[in-house]
Structures are given as C-alpha cells and as structure tokens.
C-alpha cells in the first residue's frame, strides 16, 4: 500500500503563528517524546515510521511549503508539487500520476489518502494499514475510515452505514451528512454513524482511469503541464459522490482535529512557550510568544495570547473558531518563514514614495547548510554577520566571514553563503521590486556550487 499525505492550508486558522508559508501543521508547539517541541507533521511522520509506512508515503503540497517540509522532515521525503492550488481532487490525481509513472506503482496497488496533520494515537495508523485488505476484500470503489463519535458534534461530517447487512469489520455506506445540528448528530450516532476524518483508499487504477477518461495524460511530467485542466474541485464532490460502491472501516481510538486554538491548546502539554509570564490566578490561559520581547498575562482565564512577527492575537478560547472572520482582510506578506537552511524573520518592511522598497530580515542559517547560489536583477543586499562563522561566495570567489563582517551584494552579483557554525545575519534588501520571482537560482548544493565556481574560474 502507498500513502498520499495532503499538506495544504491557507495559514489563517492558527494566525498569527500560521501564515501562507507556514500552515498549522508546521507549528512546533506540541511536546515530542524527548521533551522537544515538534510540529503536527513531524509527529505524524514519526508515527508512520513506527508502522513502517513512511517509506511508501508521498506528500502532496504547494510550492510554498516544499522548503518547510524539507526543513522538518529532511530532503529524502517524496514530494508532489502542485503548480497551483486547485483543491484536493487535482492534488490526488497528480499524486496518482506520480506513483504510476515515476514510481512504477502497479495499477492494482491500494492507495490510501489522509491529511498530514491528524492528532491521533499510534494505533490510528495501524487501522489505516487495514484499509488495504478492506479495498481488496470488498471490491468497492472506495474504502473510507471513520471515527466512532464521542459526542454529537456539529463540526464534522458523518458517514452513515446501510442498516440491512451482516456485521463485518467494515460496512457499506448509505450516505453522508455534512455538519448536522447537535440534535441531528445524536440521531446519526444512534444509527452507528462515524465522523468523517478525511481518510480513504482505492486501487490506483480507479483514479488513473478517471484521468484517462477526462482526456488528460497519466504521465506525471505531462499532467503537470496540463494541471489547470483538472476540475478545481474537492475529492468528495468529484469522486466520492459519483462512486458506485463505498465501504467504511470504523476506528474507535483517539482522534482530534487541531484546527483551532482552543482544540490545539488542549494538547499542548504546557501553557507557556517563549518569553513571558502568566499569573497563578490566570486559569486555563496559554501564551505562545515568538517575539523577542516579553509578554505578561495577569488575572484572566480561558484566554489565548499568541504573538509572532505576523501579528498578535488575544482571544477567549471559545471564540477562537471565529478567527478567520476577523482577519480575512489581512493581506501582508509572511513575516516569518522556515526554510531548508534555517529561518528568517522580517524586522521591517518599508515602501518609500517615489523611492526604493526596503526589507530588513534576521536570518539564521543552521550549521553546514547554505543559501543557494543566486542573483537578483532588481535589488541589492547587504549582510551584517551578528554571530557565527561561515563562508561567502561573490561572483565565484570564496572567503570566510565571522561576527562583525559586512558583505555587500550589488544588483546582478552571483552570491551564496554557507554556515560553518550556526550563523546569524541581518539582511537589508533594497530595490524596485522585492519579490521571489527576482531570484535566479544557479545551484542549491554547496559542493556543486564550488564545482561551478571552479569551472567558471578555469574558463577565464
């Protein structure tokens, strides 16, 4: 069996820590086994390793999340990169083409799809592994996994079974009900309905055949080129509603969707992360602070305070599900990002009238990692080394740098920097257009950068 992990999200649900580059699954605010903070995606991947499913997994994501995934899970993870966001069906179809044409996966192979961020016990993934047998034994188009409800929630969708069949480990699905009232949910639970947790499985040929019938290529490189022709639709509407036969496998273990601050804080294990203090009489109050300034909370209960370079949130926990409503028109660029080489934080962003745009960042490059060899046509950069040791390349010439050094990078200059020890830098960008599209990457790997510089020098 192969797994497709869906990694999406707009970055609004856990603002201000989450943004368009760092969705909720990448926030390192859960306690790991060794006491360190881990993200939801790191926790899930650790659980996949425990049941030997990690090597058969591929992550489907947008271009903006690739470096975050590589930073947290390593560069060996298989990633399918969506050229644009077009909902879950196109992402799954593209992943199917990747497995079929790039990984030579047999058409009879069972493919399971699940979100990258469920908060579950390890036995959840043991149940996911059982979907393979369910698909083969039932011969159904789709096999879903549903969670046995613990209360009549109006937040989730429900899978309702047929009532006229013999008891098995799985059941045939009658229909679905999306976010019913609590009273309706009580009646559905009485019918043995399950929460829909977004986990399902099928044989690879089922989706490959759908792509072929639509007149689209099943080769991964070719489907990438015609990705915009795939229906911009969810898998539920494009596939599930049209399936002839669907079965569901119940899971009665622990499962929670950590989609809002009030549900996330229930699983954090600690009520203070970052600089600050919470008074003893502040009950059930959490502070998550990514800023370098302290925050004090005094005499308030059931409160969540979150602070990051992207903003500050103060909310009663019960009100946190309404967060999207109030921040919907916040359209600033992400002020904090995690990359394959480290992190950066935007300290200041100014656009001068009839003058340049200026961005000041604090960059931390982890030891033995590097920025790519690149150049810009519309901006200059000035680096001031605050701490650590490294080496810089400017137009194929290399030199060592350490705390106190200042490096100027004029427009059109090829440049790269590598950290020998953890390296802290203040970077000031100045130019007419400070956008990612103005970055021309020549090489990523440091050894290959050195080879490129040596070959260029020998040609002169």
Automatic annotation (TrEMBL):
Residues 339-443 form the Mannose-6-phosphate isomerase type II C-terminal domain. GO terms for molecular function: mannose-1-phosphate guanylyltransferase (GTP) activity. CDD domains: cupin_PMI_typeII_C. Residues 4-267 form the Nucleotidyl transferase domain. SUPFAM superfamilies: Nucleotide-diphospho-sugar transferases (SSF53448), RmlC-like cupins (SSF51182). It comes from the Bacteria. One of its GO terms (biological process) is GDP-mannose biosynthetic process. This is Cupin domain-containing protein. It comes from Robertmurraya kyonggiensis.
